Amino acid sequence: MFGIHDLALFIVSGLLLNIMPGPDTLLIMARSATQGWRAGVAASLGIGTGTLVHVLAAALGLSALLATSAAAFNVVKWVGAAYIVWCGIGMLRARLKQSDDVPLPPPAPLPLRRIYAQGFLTNILNPKVALFFLAFVPQFIDADAPNKPLAFIVLGLIFDFNGMLWCHGLALFTAFASARLKVKPLVALWLNRVTGSLFLVLGARLALADRH
């Protein structure tokens, strides 16, 4: 159907690729552990929206521009790296306030809409995601498919749906584990800082990445 072949292999490969850790995974786990499952789900939905934009852009040929134009790739790369580093710095700057007779509160929660935006921007500003779709998805489309862009979009939607299953499952599991372990505010603070440090490393790696 649609000129798609080896669909089962595509689904399994996509799930395995979604499980690989990266900025998206770290963001979901950090938000779920510190603010609960709703925050993790908000980050997941933002990531899913970003993936959908990548799918549509690749189907329309925009991702090919990133693959062939060094200038376009570098612009997206540096903007994405700067945003990831900015998120990391924000996590590192998290603070706890304490008065003499009041227990330590948890780090100040972010609004869900801001967490959604974080997930979206973290995903959409990573040019490696665009190039991944351009390299991975066409392998499962017949050379003589009647409508290649439509086949690309169908496979992209399947990949995004499976990715959302994984992301939401990760958000719920992390939030449940955090609640069961009764993560204390100080632990949540250091979790933010560790995640922020990892974001700085990932931002640096993205800044140094090339198109290959």
Automatic annotation (TrEMBL):
Q: Which GO terms describe its cellular component?
A: plasma membrane
Q: Where are the transmembrane segments?
A: 45-68, 75-95, 115-137, 149-177, 189-208
Membrane-topology annotation of the record: Multi-pass membrane protein
The answer to whether keyword Transferase applies is no
Localization terms from the record: Cell membrane
User: What is the annotated signal peptide range for this record?
Assistant: none
Q: What keywords does the record list, in alphabetical order?
A: Cell membrane, Membrane, Transmembrane, Transmembrane helix
GO MF annotations, alphabetized: amino acid transmembrane transporter activity
State what protein this is by name.
Threonine/homoserine/homoserine lactone efflux protein
UniProt organism field: Pseudoduganella lurida
